[in-house]
């Protein structure tokens, strides 16, 4: 029995990796990830220039997950691109997460990556909910289609999209119809559920400073939504567009559920932040135990095979 998998023809020890933004801001954090049991890693979403991000407190762990309004703090695209270029011969598969603060900056950043010798995967983050005044791009279907049309007029490297959660079947249908028109390597479902609110009842106060306490939710809160998005897009997208599942992964069973819904790879955010990189060994062991108990010998035995009630 094996939890090995392949992505873009590259064999990975397991389907697990970090979620962008968690444990991937600095070289030290990314090196620790690269040396961990994680099958792959993704960098913090980069903008062209360094960003300090939103004022603290901006990330809080709460009983059922986390709330954050980081505001895309990052060292700038060159920092992460240089990190990946320097290591792309040693690391099996790298994911470089990118966005821009404007349409033109997005195009500029993707042109920068296209012009580089980077051989890894680019994750285009269409779903950050925490930059004040900036809407989540992928909730604007027309803008998304315009951006993808321009990007694919020049971008030839493997490209995936980090999507926000959708909550309406019509939106799954509309978004999938747009995505099926482009040669995407994958879509990553989901980013945090944007603009939630967590209250400290003793202080009768919000818990994060930016945006009056509104922030993206992660963790247990979002697993049912994450699973639904993985399943909905797996059912609707061309099989050539893979699905990465993100959201609410804390145990091997959560990993199993994401794969059952159609995920090829599974990312860990909140629980990684809380437990550290040791979580990857635990998740692999727990997934293997579930596969053993069910008599599965590989991920393909159950990937995308969620049953409905007839
Ligand atoms: O895409 C993002 N999702 C989040 O939940 N937070 C970060 C951020 O705020 O930088 N970005």
Plain-language structure description:
One of its GO terms (cellular component) is cytoplasm. Residues 3-291 form the Dihydroorotate dehydrogenase catalytic domain. Catalyzes the conversion of dihydroorotate to orotate. Belongs to the dihydroorotate dehydrogenase family. Type 1 subfamily. InterPro entries: Aldolase_TIM, DHO_dehydrogenase, DHOD_1A, Dihydro_DH_chainA_dom2, Dihydroorotate_DH_1, Dihydroorotate_DH_1_2, Dihydroorotate_DH_cat, Dihydroorotate_DH_CS. The structure is a single chain. The chain has 310 residues and is α/β, with parallel strands linked by helices. It has one domain: TIM Barrel, CATH 3.20.20.70. Helix content is 32%, strand content 20%. It contains nine helices and 16 strands. It has helices at 27-34, 77-87, 103-115, 141-151, 169-179, 223-236, 252-260, 270-275, 279-294, and strands spanning 5-7, 10-12, 16-18, 41-42, 59-62, 65-68, 94-98, 121-125, 159-163, 186-189, 193-197, 199-200, 205-206, 214-218, 242-246, 265-268. The protein has an eight-stranded parallel beta sheet. Strands 5-6-14-11 form a four-stranded antiparallel beta sheet. Strands 1-2 form a two-stranded antiparallel sheet. Helix 7 links the parallel strand 15 and strand 16. Helix 5 (169-179) crosses helix 6 (223-236) and helix 7 packs across helix 9. The longest helix is centred in the C-terminal third of the chain and has 16 residues, at 279-294. The structure holds oxonic acid (OXC).
